[in-house]
Structure formats: C-alpha cells, structure tokens
Amino acid sequence: MQLRLDLQFFAGEKTEKATPKKRNDERKKGRVAKSQDVNTAFLLLFVLIMMAVFGSFMKDNMLALFQHTFTEFIHWDLTEKNVFQLFKEIMLEFAKIVGPVMIIAVVAGVGSNLMQIGFLFTTEPLKFDLKKIDPIQGAKRIFSLRALVELLKSFLKIVVIGSITFFVIWLFKDDMLMIAFKNAENALAFFARTTLIMGIAATIALLFLAVFDYTYQKYDFEKNIRMSKQDIKDEYKNIEGDPLIKSKIKEKQRQISMRRMMSEIPNADVVITNPTHYAIAIKYDEEKASAPYVVAKGVDHIAFKIREIAKANNVITVENRPLARSLYASVEIGEVVPEEFYQAVAEVLAYVYRMEKKV
C-alpha cells in the first residue's frame, strides 16, 4: 500500500519538461516567457536616440509654435471659428513635434515583443475570469516567491538607476553651479544634454538587468509549465485516444471486415487451400476485373471458417500448397492476382469449371 502511494506521489510530481502541445496551449492563452524590462529598456533606448537625432528639429518647431502663438494667435478674437482653427493648428504642430517619437516608441515596443515571443495575437487574457478577482488567490500572489523576486528586482533597478543618475549629476555639478551665468538657451541646452546622457546610461544599465530578468522569466515559465508523468499520459490519451477504446474500435472494425469477407465466400469460384493452414477464395468476374481477384483469405482458424462456409455453399476447394502460400503472402483482399500467378490460377479455374460441368 505504501509503495503504491509513493508511486502515485512521484507520478503526480511535475518533473517532466512540457510537451510541444502543452507549450502551444499555453501560448494560445497568452502565457509566454516575456520580460517587461526588455520592452521598457528598448523603448527608452530608441526614444532617447530619436530625441538625440531629432532634438534640434523638435526644439525649432516648439520655438516656432511659441513665437507664432505670442505674435499672431494672441491677437485673434475669441470666436468659435477662431478657437477651432487655433486648436487644429496647434494639434498639427504638436503632432509634427511628437509624431516621430511616438512612431519610434511603437516600433520599439512591437519589435522588443517580437524579439522575445514572435508574433502572437490572442484574446484569451481579456476573457472574464472570476479567479482573477478571487481575494484568496490574490493574497497568494502577493505573498508568493515570485512577488518577492519582483520586489527585489524593482529595488535593484531603483538602486542601479539612482546610482547612475547621482553619478552623472556629480560629474556635471560644477557646470550646474555656473548655470546662473548662462543665458536661457545655453542653460536649456546643458540640461537637455545632461538629461540625455543620464537617460542613455540608465537605459544601458536597464538593458543589462533586462537580460537577467528575461533569463529568470524563462526559467520561471519553464518551471510553471512542467508536467507530471501522469499529465503526459493523459495528454497522449487525449491526442491518440484511450488505448483500451482504440483496441475495442480496432476489434470492432476487424469483426465488421471479417463478416464482410465471409459474406463474399459463397460467391467465390474456388477456395485454394494448404490444405489446413491457408485458404484463399478466388473469383473471376469480367465485369469487375480483368483478372481473377481474391475475395477472402486467412490462416488457421479463419482458414477453417472459409473452408466451412465454402463447403456449406458448394464452393469447390482445391489443394495447392505452394499457390495458397504465395497468394496469401502476395495479394490482399479485393486485389487481382499478380501476373506471375495467372497460369497457376487459370489451371485451377479450368479444373473448377470442368468439375462444375460434370456436376
């Protein structure tokens, strides 16, 4: 009893790698190994590069918008038409300024996801599930090992990015102290350059952290989708069908095929035997085939049944050991006799036809 319980316990332990079907099912549900830090790092990196490249373009357009606002728009009368026109022009200028950044942000977000999990579209996570609002399950998630890991990971990111930010500020502390002696344009340029350096340095550090996070997410995902030996057996049964049911279906099919074969024996012209081990029922019908064909065959018990049915229906039985063996090995039920057996079968049929004429 104890041994049986131990075997059941080990059979239920999730020690096996997930099967391709299990992985595919999880993917359809939207459950994949993905690090959000990779998305965030790539998004920030590409946006910062975009701002570095198009920063002067954005600055010029913003200055032009402010200048136009305080030199022309300010003199417009406050009417419905003017407000609509003002709103439209400002939105167009704003789209021109932030449009490139938004486009590169979308491309970076989609690209980082494709890089991690490939193309995946599923509505499964959007379906309503009461388990998602279950307070007990929620508490388990909050106080789980994964939640602790996420907390430590967030703390590490804060420490690393905070340290990098402090280091960059410390490098430029002298320039910051002299900012009061610079004009507004130079001051803004200094802060923009410092912010860009700070952002790129922090993003590079975040990329390194994202590599470790993706490795952990991959490991955690693989651990969560592990299967027990029993799970694999159940999956195999679902795919291939229960072996017991399959065997019963095959047995039923064999019985149906056997009955169909036995029903054709009374129509046969001759049964060629071994004499006891093999029995082959042959028929020749010019309308159905160009050569004689096999309507039934069998060995041992089935051969006995074929001979018995042939005898009951006055079908002539001819003993020809080599021919019976060769036909059984070479021809399936419903197939015509191969060319190499034409002469031997023709001699048997000629003998049968002579015997029938005598009768």
TrEMBL record:
> Which UniProt keywords are listed?
Bacterial flagellum biogenesis, Bacterial flagellum protein export, Cell membrane, Cell projection, Cilium, Flagellum, Membrane, Protein transport, Transmembrane, Transmembrane helix, Transport
Asked if Glycoprotein is a keyword of the record, the answer is no
Per its UniProt entry, which superkingdom is the organism in?
Bacteria
Q: Which GO terms describe its cellular component?
A: plasma membrane
Physiological role:
Required for formation of the rod structure in the basal body of the flagellar apparatus. Together with FliI and FliH, may constitute the export apparatus of flagellin.
Please report which protein family the annotation says this sequence is part of: Belongs to the type III secretion exporter family.
This protein's name? Flagellar biosynthetic protein FlhB
Q: Which organism is it from?
A: Ornithinibacillus hominis
Please state the gene responsible for encoding this protein.
flhB
